[in-house]
Amino acid sequence: MNVLEDLSLLVAAFVAALFGQGGGVLYTPLQVWNGVDLHTAAPVSLFLILVISLSSTLVFRKAHQVDWNTALVLEAPTTLGAFSGGLLSQYVSSRTLGLILFILLSTAAWFMLRPPKGNIQSRIASHPSHWTWQRSVNGETYQLDLRLIIPVMLAVGLLTSMVGIGGGALKVPLMVLLFGIPVPIAIGSSAFMVGLTAAAGLLGHISFGSFNWTAALLLAIPVFIGGQIGSRLSVHLDALHLEKWFGYFILVVAFVSAFRLDVFQ
Question: How many domains does the structure of the chain reveal?
Answer without folding.
Answer: 1
